[in-house]
Amino acid sequence: MTALAPLARIHSPPRNAMQSGRANTGGWLLEYAPTPQALDPLMGWVGRGDTRNQVRLHFPTLEAAVAFAEARGISYEVAPPPAERPIKPKVYADNFRYGRTENWSH
Questions:
Q1: 67 lies in a domain?
Q2: Angstrom distance (rounded) from CA 54 to CA 43
Q3: By CB distance 3.0 to 4.6 Å, which of 16, 50, 67, 79 could disulfide with 11?
Q4: Rounded to an integer, what is the distance from CA 37 to the centroid of its chain?
Q5: How many angstroms separate the first and last alpha carbons of the chain?
Q6: Sorting pLDDT into bands at 50, 70 and 90, what band is 11?
């Protein structure tokens, strides 16, 4: 029985939903694909004997993540980075601006 090379996904994580800016969104992650769960014969619990599912490796560039995977023989797939939407600057004083055309939000 031959062991297959572990499959990994390299992607750039999107920004957090609680985040309004672009801070901490420039890196790349390498995450291993989940392995099938197995039933423990003694206790009956479901689990995995592989701890790679818990590993998330952070890299500053895509090239560094790919080089890491190739150096260790990890088969990988690269997901395209999320589309960047422009951030519209908001000013609190605009809520009370004269000649405002938008509806009041409160």
A1: yes
A2: 22
A3: 79
A4: 23
A5: 66
A6: very high
Which are the contacts of 65, defined by CB distance < 8 A and separation ≥ 6? 10, 28, 29, 30, 57, 59
Is 10 buried (19+), middle (13-18) or exposed (0-12) by CB count in 10 A? buried
CATH, residue 44: 3.30.160.190
Q: What's the pLDDT tens digit per position in 49-98?
A: 788 888 899 999 999 999 999 999 999 999 988 777 777 777 888 778 88
Residue 104 domain flag: no
Which three-class secondary structure state does DSSP give residue 14? coil
Burial class of residue 15, CB neighbours in 10 A (0-12, 13-18, 19+): middle
Give the ranges where 1-106 is alpha helix by DSSP (H). Answer: 62-71
How many domains does the chain fold into?
1
User: How much is the pTM?
Assistant: 0.66
In a domain, 92, yes or no: no
pLDDT at residue 47, rounded to an integer: 79
Give the domain extent around 7.
1-12+27-81
